[in-house]
Design brief:
about 150 residues; mainly alpha; 7 helices; globular
Length: about 150
């Protein structure tokens, strides 16, 4: 099984960035000075934590995803780190996805690559579905407005 140690530091960074992109977007667009947005942000954070707990069980047999989850727990908690990491990538995800696919194709089995892609998609969907617009995030969800 593939582990973090199988990647060069830049490759691991790019995989982590790929997985964090949905979390980065949601966190970077929040004005945490308003009570409403603070409540929405807390709901999103709780959603991410619940997802990662469930993902450990679902993807536990993949060391790559376990290593990634361990990293996400620390890296994605730092909003500033995420914002410093090319927030412009959010507007054009094609190069980020292409780079992640290249790294996965070079280093992991087809089964692990598919699990990694599924994990990343599910994480992004969970974030988009966590909270919406309106009073305390109870309005239309991002996942419904796309």
């Amino acid at each position: 099984m593939t582990q973090k140690a199988n990647f060069e530091p830049k490759e691991w960074h790019d995989l982590l960035h790929f997985a964090c992109i949905g979390v980065s977007y949601k966190y970077s667009t929040r004005d945490l000075h308003s009570l409403n947005q603070l409540v929405v942000f807390i709901r999103e954070m709780m959603s991410v934590q619940q997802f990662l707990t469930g993902a450990r069980e679902k993807y536990g047999r993949y060391e790559l995803i376990n290593d990634l989850i361990n990293e996400l727990v620390t890296s994605c908690n730092s909003r500033e780190e995420m914002l410093n990491d090319n927030i412009a990538d959010i507007k054009n995800l094609k190069p980020v996805i292409k780079r992640a696919n290249q790294i996965l194709n070079d280093h992991v089995s087809a089964e692990e690559a598919q699990a990694m892609r599924a994990f990343t998609y599910e994480l992004a969907f969970e974030i988009a579905n966590a909270a919406g617009d309106g009073f305390f995030g109870t309005g239309e969800k991002i996942s419904q407005s796309c």
